[in-house]
Design goal:
This protein has about 290 residues and is of the alpha+beta class. Helix content is about 20%, strand content about 35%. A 7-stranded antiparallel sheet has the order 4-3-6-1-15-12-16, with helices on one face. It starts with a strand and ends in a 5-residue tail after the last helix.
């Protein structure tokens, strides 16, 4: 299962340090558990997106993911990929950028020719051959059609996919320079949110988050005195405030850190995939051992 991490400290720009693979031990596990790519997305002060990503097709590539990366941004998105569709190349590595927004996905969508047909001219935004990038392009199409209303666009896109394509999971994090959205659907994989108070539960501590499998570690000294909203595929510290998003629930963090949680899809997919339906890399990537 891929790892997602999203964070908003808006309206404040904060420094945060990321390790996309936290230890050499995470590179020494069985090959079936080896990540296929890592990526980090941030924004410059003028709102320009910055994407740093690397497929882990060779040992020397993995050094990229082990390096500490200190970046300043209002919003952040990090992703560790276990490939399901698409080769292990930069074009297929998350996060993806389209029209000034960044996107990372955890799940599987099938029937890609049908999805491509639905994209129309927005197929031109797609550079690789993953289901995730095509999913993002469909959301982008609907954002334009809904005059920039991302919530309405996501509802339209995920509703169409749920009715027309075979789906295991549509979990994603989407960020602009000062906003963040996260969505969980259906219940195949968890997606958690933490509304972190300044200093965490004790009121005096910097942010220090780490996944249990040695992938994705984040640290920010600024969050000892500032609030933040964090989204992740698993609970990443001892804070009791972590909550699972409900299946079909869209989280929106506004530029002033106002948080809205809205149920936008309250029906199951018409063509639901299970882990037993997957084969090859898709099955290995989505297996519980990657959690």
């Amino acid at each position: 299962m891929c790892r997602l991490f999203g964070m908003s400290a808006a309206p404040h720009r904060v420094h945060a340090t990321f390790w996309l693979l936290d230890a050499e031990d995470s590179l020494a596990e069985q090959s079936r558990r080896m990540p296929d790519g890592t990526g980090l997305g941030t924004f410059a002060s003028d709102g320009t997106p910055r994407v740093e990503k690397q497929p882990l097709a060779a040992y020397e590539d993995r050094q990229f993911a082990l390096e500490a990366r200190e970046r300043e941004s209002e919003t952040f998105v990090a992703h560790v990929r276990y490939a399901t569709t698409g080769e292990v190349v930069p074009a297929n590595t998350h996060p993806f950028e389209q029209k000034g927004r960044l996107f990372a996905h955890n799940g599987v969508i099938e029937d890609l020719p049908t999805l491509e047909a639905e994209l129309g001219d927005y197929r031109d935004l797609v550079r690789g051959d993953t289901d995730s990038e095509r999913f993002f392009a469909l959301i982008t199409r609907h954002i334009d059609e809904h005059d920039g209303d991302v919530g309405a666009a996501v509802a339209a896109a995920v509703g169409w996919i749920a009715d027309n394509l075979r789906v295991l999971a549509l979990n994603f994090v989407l960020v602009s320079a000062d906003e963040m959205w996260a969505f969980r659907y259906p219940d195949a994989h968890d997606l958690l949110v933490l509304l972190r108070r300044p200093g965490g539960p004790g009121g005096r501590r910097h942010l220090e988050h780490a996944s249990g499998a040695g992938t994705v570690r984040a640290r920010s000294g600024a969050l000892a005195t500032l609030p933040a909203v964090v989204v992740a595929t698993e609970q990443m510290d001892e804070d009791p405030g972590w909550e699972s998003l409900c299946p079909g629930e869209l989280l929106h963090v506004e530029p002033n850190q106002e948080v809205a949680r809205t149920m936008i899809l309250d029906r199951p997919p018409k063509h639901r995939l299970t882990l037993d339906d997957l084969t090859g890399r898709a099955a290995a990537a989505q297996a519980p051992s990657h959690r």
